[in-house]
Write the structure tokens for this entry.
Amino acid sequence: MTMLVYGLVTGVLFGFLLQKGRVLRYDKQVGALRLMDMTIVKFMLSSVIVGMVGIYLLHDLGLVKLSVKAAILGPVIIGALIFGLGWGLLGYCPGTSLGALGEGRWDALWGIVGMVAGAALFAEAYPVLKETVYTWGDLGKITLPQVLGVNHWIVIPLFIAGALVLFRWLEKRGL
Amino acid sequence: MQQRDGGWSPYLAGGLSGLVGVFSVWFAGQYFGASTSFVRTAGMIEQLFGPDRVASMDYFIKNVPRIDWQWMFVVGIFLGALIAALTSGSFRLQAVPDMWAGRFGTRSTISRAAVAFAGGVVAMFGARMADG
């Protein structure tokens, strides 16, 4: 029960910030895919920077566990290509579709129903995919610092520096 | 940091959302995600028609159809966006997004619904395959 309350409160805070950042809208999402408006890229990268610093700090202090997903090339590459196609059509992603609905953009509702149907379809296909796509290129649960063989506090500042260069360039271009 | 459209700077809002994410991992041990909740929802709906079949399916054994932390997180996103929109006057009931209307007209509600539905099916299939 406590976990459900945690989930709701966290979601309210996140949804509030998504709306304030104006990243829930179709025009912003498709705008990014059309390389016209990079608001969502700024939002996501800012979130990633704060998240990676905070979580690695807490991890070094032994307070949290990392959640590393397996890097399996087959399903990640094919799945991402399929996702991108659907995202471009829908103009919302799974999390933001609920937020868009909250803002009154009720075309998101058709997308939400479609996504529940897509999840049901995937559950049907899973046994076949497990024997095929999921066996292609399994690299296991790896991280960038691990693959490069360096401490994460080398990778993190480099990532932040790269993001700042990108932000500067986007602002200069008025994107 | 106020933007032309009345919103906050995406750097500020994004950075704060990262902080919310850090606290979530710290206090609840939960990383942000949304798409698993669509699987659980599909399973809960299917249970109404065939509970035995759902119980026997690999993917619903892996992702048990029930309301969990993430499911409430997704409901929270809806409420949080609703609160932010209503308190700032940016709530707007809209059947067709502006960019879509610019290309296909404001009366294209049905075609928008069809494309959004189809896009949703495809997007979720891909997201689940990539485990995202």
User: Anything to note?
Assistant: The radius of gyration of chain A is 19 Å. Residues 28 and 175 of chain A are 11 Å apart (CA to CA). Chain A touches chain B through 101 residues (CB under 8 Å). Chain A has a mean pLDDT of 97.
